[in-house]
Amino acid sequence: MNILLVSPKYPDSFWSFKYALKFVPGKETTHPPLGLLTVAAMLPDEWDKKVVDLNITPLRDDYLAWADYVFISAMYAQKTSAEEVIDACRAAGVKTVAGGPYFTGNDDDFERVDHLVLNEAEITLPVFLADLASGRAKHVYRSDAFADMHETPVPAYELIDMDKYMSMSVQFSRGCPFDCDFCDITKLNGRRPRTKTKEQILAELENIYRLGWRAGVFFVDDNFIGNRRVLKSEILPAVREWMDERDHPFSFVTQVSIDLADDDGLLDSMYGAGFDVVFVGVETPSDEGIY
User: Fold this and answer.
1) Domains contained in the chain, CATH given
2) Which of 27, 40, 111 is nearest to 73 (CA)?
3) Would you say the pTM of this structure is higher than 0.85?
Protein backbone atom coordinates (compact mmCIF):
# COMPACT_ATOMS: atom_id res chain seq x y z
CA MET A 1 0.00 0.00 0.00
CA ASN A 2 1.35 3.43 -0.99
CA ILE A 3 0.33 6.21 1.37
CA LEU A 4 0.86 9.90 0.60
CA LEU A 5 0.51 12.11 3.68
CA VAL A 6 -0.20 15.72 2.69
CA SER A 7 0.03 18.82 4.85
CA PRO A 8 -1.92 21.68 3.17
CA LYS A 9 -0.38 25.09 2.64
CA TYR A 10 -0.82 27.95 5.09
CA PRO A 11 -2.04 31.28 3.67
CA ASP A 12 0.18 34.35 3.94
CA SER A 13 -0.66 35.12 7.54
CA PHE A 14 0.61 34.66 11.08
CA TRP A 15 0.70 30.92 10.42
CA SER A 16 3.04 31.00 7.44
CA PHE A 17 5.77 33.39 8.67
CA LYS A 18 6.43 33.80 4.94
CA TYR A 19 8.25 37.11 5.15
CA ALA A 20 10.07 36.46 8.43
CA LEU A 21 11.51 33.25 7.01
CA LYS A 22 13.41 35.27 4.41
CA PHE A 23 15.80 36.19 7.22
CA VAL A 24 16.56 32.51 7.98
CA PRO A 25 18.70 31.10 5.13
CA GLY A 26 17.65 27.73 3.77
CA LYS A 27 14.42 27.46 5.74
CA GLU A 28 11.17 27.22 3.81
CA THR A 29 8.60 26.88 6.59
CA THR A 30 8.42 26.95 10.36
CA HIS A 31 7.39 23.58 11.81
CA PRO A 32 6.87 20.08 10.41
CA PRO A 33 3.35 18.55 10.29
CA LEU A 34 3.61 16.77 13.64
CA GLY A 35 0.12 15.27 13.47
CA LEU A 36 0.78 13.64 10.11
CA LEU A 37 4.17 12.34 11.24
CA THR A 38 2.49 10.80 14.28
CA VAL A 39 -0.19 9.21 12.10
CA ALA A 40 2.52 7.90 9.77
CA ALA A 41 4.10 6.12 12.74
CA MET A 42 0.76 4.43 13.47
CA LEU A 43 0.38 2.99 9.97
CA PRO A 44 1.52 -0.57 9.18
CA ASP A 45 5.30 -0.86 8.82
CA GLU A 46 4.99 -2.68 5.52
CA TRP A 47 3.21 0.25 3.86
CA ASP A 48 5.27 2.71 1.82
CA LYS A 49 4.82 6.29 3.02
CA LYS A 50 5.73 9.71 1.69
CA VAL A 51 5.09 13.08 3.31
CA VAL A 52 4.42 16.13 1.15
CA ASP A 53 4.34 19.48 2.93
CA LEU A 54 2.77 21.95 0.52
CA ASN A 55 4.50 24.79 2.35
CA ILE A 56 7.70 23.40 0.82
CA THR A 57 6.77 21.57 -2.37
CA PRO A 58 3.71 21.44 -4.66
CA LEU A 59 1.42 18.44 -4.98
CA ARG A 60 2.79 16.86 -8.15
CA ASP A 61 0.87 14.58 -10.48
CA ASP A 62 3.42 11.79 -10.06
CA TYR A 63 2.83 11.80 -6.29
CA LEU A 64 -0.88 11.24 -6.85
CA ALA A 65 -0.25 8.58 -9.48
CA TRP A 66 1.93 6.70 -6.95
CA ALA A 67 -0.54 6.87 -4.06
CA ASP A 68 -3.23 4.36 -3.17
CA TYR A 69 -4.54 6.71 -0.47
CA VAL A 70 -3.89 10.34 0.40
CA PHE A 71 -4.03 11.21 4.09
CA ILE A 72 -4.75 14.90 4.83
CA SER A 73 -4.58 16.69 8.17
CA ALA A 74 -5.31 20.40 8.54
CA MET A 75 -6.12 23.25 10.86
CA TYR A 76 -8.77 25.78 9.92
CA ALA A 77 -6.10 28.19 8.64
CA GLN A 78 -5.28 25.59 5.96
CA LYS A 79 -8.90 25.33 4.77
CA THR A 80 -8.45 26.63 1.22
CA SER A 81 -5.42 24.48 0.48
CA ALA A 82 -7.02 21.39 2.05
CA GLU A 83 -10.03 21.69 -0.22
CA GLU A 84 -7.74 22.09 -3.24
CA VAL A 85 -5.97 18.87 -2.26
CA ILE A 86 -9.31 17.05 -2.01
CA ASP A 87 -10.30 18.30 -5.47
CA ALA A 88 -6.95 17.22 -6.95
CA CYS A 89 -7.28 13.75 -5.45
CA ARG A 90 -10.81 13.33 -6.80
CA ALA A 91 -9.67 14.42 -10.24
CA ALA A 92 -6.84 11.88 -10.11
CA GLY A 93 -9.09 9.12 -8.81
CA VAL A 94 -7.18 8.73 -5.52
CA LYS A 95 -9.08 7.93 -2.33
CA THR A 96 -8.71 10.38 0.57
CA VAL A 97 -8.55 10.01 4.34
CA ALA A 98 -8.88 13.25 6.32
CA GLY A 99 -8.55 14.20 9.98
CA GLY A 100 -7.22 16.87 12.29
CA PRO A 101 -8.85 19.95 13.83
CA TYR A 102 -10.36 21.40 10.64
CA PHE A 103 -12.12 18.21 9.57
CA THR A 104 -13.08 17.22 13.13
CA GLY A 105 -14.82 20.55 13.61
CA ASN A 106 -16.46 20.67 10.16
CA ASP A 107 -17.00 17.05 9.10
CA ASP A 108 -20.54 17.65 7.78
CA ASP A 109 -19.04 19.70 4.95
CA PHE A 110 -16.87 16.93 3.52
CA GLU A 111 -18.89 14.41 1.55
CA ARG A 112 -16.13 14.63 -1.08
CA VAL A 113 -13.69 12.95 1.33
CA ASP A 114 -13.77 9.15 1.17
CA HIS A 115 -13.00 8.55 4.84
CA LEU A 116 -13.09 11.00 7.76
CA VAL A 117 -10.98 9.74 10.67
CA LEU A 118 -11.79 12.35 13.30
CA ASN A 119 -10.91 13.28 16.87
CA GLU A 120 -7.73 11.64 18.21
CA ALA A 121 -6.00 9.19 15.91
CA GLU A 122 -4.91 6.87 18.72
CA ILE A 123 -8.60 5.94 19.08
CA THR A 124 -10.17 6.22 15.63
CA LEU A 125 -7.30 5.31 13.29
CA PRO A 126 -6.89 1.67 14.45
CA VAL A 127 -10.62 1.07 13.92
CA PHE A 128 -10.43 2.53 10.41
CA LEU A 129 -7.35 0.46 9.57
CA ALA A 130 -9.03 -2.74 10.76
CA ASP A 131 -12.12 -1.98 8.67
CA LEU A 132 -9.98 -1.10 5.67
CA ALA A 133 -8.14 -4.42 5.92
CA SER A 134 -11.45 -6.30 5.94
CA GLY A 135 -12.88 -4.31 3.04
CA ARG A 136 -15.61 -2.54 5.00
CA ALA A 137 -14.21 0.92 5.70
CA LYS A 138 -16.88 3.49 6.61
CA HIS A 139 -17.16 7.15 5.68
CA VAL A 140 -16.89 8.61 9.20
CA TYR A 141 -15.00 7.53 12.30
CA ARG A 142 -15.35 9.61 15.45
CA SER A 143 -15.11 9.20 19.20
CA ASP A 144 -16.09 11.22 22.27
CA ALA A 145 -13.31 9.55 24.27
CA PHE A 146 -9.89 11.06 24.84
CA ALA A 147 -6.76 9.10 23.98
CA ASP A 148 -4.27 7.66 26.43
CA MET A 149 -1.13 9.50 25.33
CA HIS A 150 1.02 6.73 26.76
CA GLU A 151 0.11 4.88 23.54
CA THR A 152 1.28 7.66 21.19
CA PRO A 153 4.28 6.55 19.09
CA VAL A 154 7.44 8.48 18.26
CA PRO A 155 6.61 10.60 15.17
CA ALA A 156 8.15 9.43 11.89
CA TYR A 157 10.59 12.33 11.44
CA GLU A 158 12.64 10.26 9.04
CA LEU A 159 10.00 10.96 6.36
CA ILE A 160 10.81 14.67 6.04
CA ASP A 161 13.75 16.85 5.05
CA MET A 162 14.40 18.39 8.45
CA ASP A 163 16.75 21.04 7.04
CA LYS A 164 13.80 22.81 5.36
CA TYR A 165 12.22 23.65 8.73
CA MET A 166 13.03 26.38 11.20
CA SER A 167 12.19 24.22 14.21
CA MET A 168 11.26 20.66 15.11
CA SER A 169 8.17 19.87 17.21
CA VAL A 170 7.37 17.68 20.21
CA GLN A 171 4.07 17.29 22.08
CA PHE A 172 4.06 16.60 25.82
CA SER A 173 0.36 17.01 26.63
CA ARG A 174 -3.14 17.59 25.23
CA GLY A 175 -5.89 19.52 26.97
CA CYS A 176 -6.00 22.68 29.05
CA PRO A 177 -7.51 23.36 32.50
CA PHE A 178 -8.84 26.74 31.36
CA ASP A 179 -11.84 27.51 29.18
CA CYS A 180 -11.06 30.71 27.25
CA ASP A 181 -13.90 31.66 24.93
CA PHE A 182 -11.62 32.36 21.94
CA CYS A 183 -10.11 28.86 21.99
CA ASP A 184 -11.45 25.49 20.83
CA ILE A 185 -8.78 23.39 22.53
CA THR A 186 -10.99 22.23 25.38
CA LYS A 187 -13.63 21.17 22.84
CA LEU A 188 -11.06 19.16 20.90
CA ASN A 189 -8.85 17.87 23.71
CA GLY A 190 -10.70 18.39 26.99
CA ARG A 191 -9.91 20.29 30.17
CA ARG A 192 -7.88 17.57 31.88
CA PRO A 193 -4.34 17.70 30.50
CA ARG A 194 -3.16 14.25 29.47
CA THR A 195 0.56 13.70 29.26
CA LYS A 196 3.23 11.48 27.80
CA THR A 197 5.76 9.80 30.04
CA LYS A 198 9.31 11.05 30.47
CA GLU A 199 10.47 7.96 28.55
CA GLN A 200 8.33 8.97 25.57
CA ILE A 201 9.58 12.56 25.59
CA LEU A 202 13.22 11.47 25.83
CA ALA A 203 12.67 8.95 23.01
CA GLU A 204 11.31 11.72 20.77
CA LEU A 205 14.18 14.07 21.61
CA GLU A 206 16.68 11.26 21.04
CA ASN A 207 15.11 10.47 17.66
CA ILE A 208 15.40 14.09 16.52
CA TYR A 209 18.95 14.23 17.84
CA ARG A 210 19.90 10.96 16.12
CA LEU A 211 18.60 12.31 12.80
CA GLY A 212 21.05 15.20 13.09
CA TRP A 213 18.96 18.11 14.35
CA ARG A 214 20.84 20.75 16.38
CA ALA A 215 18.58 23.79 16.78
CA GLY A 216 15.22 24.85 18.17
CA VAL A 217 12.48 22.48 19.30
CA PHE A 218 8.91 23.68 19.80
CA PHE A 219 6.81 21.95 22.46
CA VAL A 220 3.48 22.42 20.71
CA ASP A 221 1.23 21.98 23.76
CA ASP A 222 -1.51 24.59 23.88
CA ASN A 223 -0.63 25.07 27.54
CA PHE A 224 2.64 23.37 28.43
CA ILE A 225 2.13 23.95 32.16
CA GLY A 226 -1.38 22.49 32.28
CA ASN A 227 -0.15 19.53 34.35
CA ARG A 228 2.47 21.05 36.61
CA ARG A 229 2.87 18.04 38.87
CA VAL A 230 4.11 15.72 36.12
CA LEU A 231 6.08 18.52 34.49
CA LYS A 232 7.95 19.46 37.66
CA SER A 233 8.51 16.03 39.15
CA GLU A 234 9.25 13.98 36.02
CA ILE A 235 9.59 15.73 32.68
CA LEU A 236 11.78 18.77 33.33
CA PRO A 237 14.39 16.96 35.49
CA ALA A 238 14.67 14.20 32.87
CA VAL A 239 14.97 16.67 29.99
CA ARG A 240 17.59 18.70 31.86
CA GLU A 241 19.70 15.60 32.48
CA TRP A 242 19.34 14.52 28.82
CA MET A 243 20.36 17.98 27.62
CA ASP A 244 23.35 18.16 29.98
CA GLU A 245 24.62 14.79 28.77
CA ARG A 246 24.57 15.99 25.14
CA ASP A 247 25.95 19.48 25.69
CA HIS A 248 22.59 21.20 25.15
CA PRO A 249 21.92 20.49 21.44
CA PHE A 250 18.48 22.13 21.44
CA SER A 251 16.77 25.28 22.66
CA PHE A 252 13.12 24.90 23.60
CA VAL A 253 10.09 27.12 22.94
CA THR A 254 6.54 26.54 24.12
CA GLN A 255 3.14 28.09 24.86
CA VAL A 256 1.98 28.74 28.42
CA SER A 257 -0.71 30.51 30.40
CA ILE A 258 0.28 33.74 32.13
CA ASP A 259 0.17 32.15 35.59
CA LEU A 260 3.62 30.74 34.86
CA ALA A 261 4.82 34.09 36.21
CA ASP A 262 3.49 33.13 39.66
CA ASP A 263 5.67 30.03 39.91
CA ASP A 264 9.34 30.90 40.30
CA GLY A 265 10.31 27.27 40.80
CA LEU A 266 8.70 26.21 37.55
CA LEU A 267 10.32 29.12 35.72
CA ASP A 268 13.73 28.09 37.03
CA SER A 269 13.14 24.43 36.12
CA MET A 270 12.06 25.27 32.58
CA TYR A 271 15.06 27.54 32.07
CA GLY A 272 17.39 24.89 33.44
CA ALA A 273 15.98 22.32 31.03
CA GLY A 274 16.64 24.58 28.04
CA PHE A 275 13.49 26.68 27.58
CA ASP A 276 14.47 30.20 26.60
CA VAL A 277 11.23 31.48 24.98
CA VAL A 278 7.58 31.14 25.95
CA PHE A 279 4.55 32.36 24.01
CA VAL A 280 1.77 33.75 26.22
CA GLY A 281 -1.74 34.46 24.97
CA VAL A 282 -3.58 37.15 26.93
CA GLU A 283 -7.36 37.52 26.71
CA THR A 284 -9.08 40.79 27.61
CA PRO A 285 -12.72 41.92 27.51
CA SER A 286 -11.58 45.50 26.83
CA ASP A 287 -11.43 46.79 23.26
CA GLU A 288 -8.72 49.20 24.32
CA GLY A 289 -6.60 46.29 25.48
CA ILE A 290 -6.40 44.89 21.95
CA TYR A 291 -4.19 47.71 20.69
Assistant:
1) 2-141 (3.40.50.280), 167-280 (3.30.750.210)
2) 40
3) yes
